[in-house]
Amino acid sequence: MSDSVLNVVLGLVASAISAGLGWLAQTLRRRRRIGRVRGFFGMPAGTECLLVVPRKGGPGTTTAVARDDAYAMMELAALVRECGARAEIVAHDQVRQGLGGKAEFCLGGPSANHRTAAHLASWLPGLAVASGDGDLTITAGDEVFPLTRPAPEGAPAYVLLARVHAGSGDRPVFLISGQTATSNHAAVRHLAANHRSLARKYGTDSTFAVILRVVNPEAYGPDVVELAADVTARATARPAPVAA
Questions:
Q1: Domain with 178 in it: what CATH number?
Q2: Alpha helices, DSSP H only, in the chain?
Q3: What is the chain's mean pLDDT, rounded?
Q4: Which residues are registered as beta bridge partners of 9?
Q5: What whole-number distance in Å separates Cα of residue 50 and Cα of residue 216?
Q6: How many domains would you assign to the chain?
Q7: Looking at the domain assignment, is residue 60 inside a domain?
Q8: Exposure of 82 by Cβ count < 10 A (0-12 exposed, 13-18 middle, 19+ buried)?
Q9: What is the pLDDT of residues 95-143, one digit of tens each?
Q10: Is the peptide bond before 239 cis (omega within 30 degrees of 0)?
Q11: What is the domain range of residue 171?
Q12: Tens-digit pLDDT profile for residues 61-92
């Protein structure tokens, strides 16, 4: 074999080795990334999770789902599929099971989702979410995040994004409790885009609760979101008992 042919062969071998090492490195990075995502959401490959669907507000709409809530559920389903898990979609008033066995995404405020109301009372007792006619205010301690209907033009909407655990080693529950369906959609997008930074700050096995501000949803839809407050400490604190 001549030197020129040998050089060509060695060059091809070196290129193949480099390509193989590059592919292996990318594969390992992707596996580590997916592993971190699965750890944060509590969805190992092959497991099941619950997507709890709210009803649309208003009379005569018991089984209807708002358009933005439907979009949010589609984005959650894509996130579940990325983790290699399977999604079970259940109406909010048809869930009859405890916590910890499956990861759960609970969408909608307490007036539209009875499951959300139960989770708030059990795990975030320091948080109050109004569900009266026209008043959708979220209150955490001395912080108030108001929204009244009809909302003034350009007014922001707020949404609670929280993760709660029933116990150590259990699958988490994610609460997306917004003042509007658009704010629910915005929180789901924020969760999907920022789960890495949330994992760095809160880890994979702790409770957190943040309030997100959706800027001018009438103009920008669910696309412009900013952190309004971290209310974890206030939301998880139980109110002091009233003296007799």
A1: 3.30.379.10
A2: 3-41, 67-82, 114-123, 181-202, 217-220, 232-236
A3: 83
A4: none
A5: 31
A6: 1
A7: yes
A8: middle
A9: 877 788 899 999 999 988 999 999 999 999 999 887 666 678 899 988 9
A10: no
A11: 42-236
A12: 556 788 999 999 999 999 999 889 999 988 88
User: What would the pLDDT profile of 168-200 be if each residue is shown by its tens digit?
Assistant: 778 999 999 999 999 999 999 999 999 999 999
**214, 157 contact by CB (below 8 A):** yes
Q: Which two tokens stand for residue 141?
A: 């301690």
Q: How far apart are CA 195 and CA 191, in angstroms?
A: 5
In a domain, residue 11? The reply is no
Q: What are phi and psi of 95, to 5 degrees?
A: -85, 125
* Count, residues in the chain: 244
Residue 33 lies in a domain: no
Q: What is the pTM of this model?
A: 0.83
How, if at all, do strands 157-164 and 48-53 pair? unpaired
At residue 188, what is the residue type? V
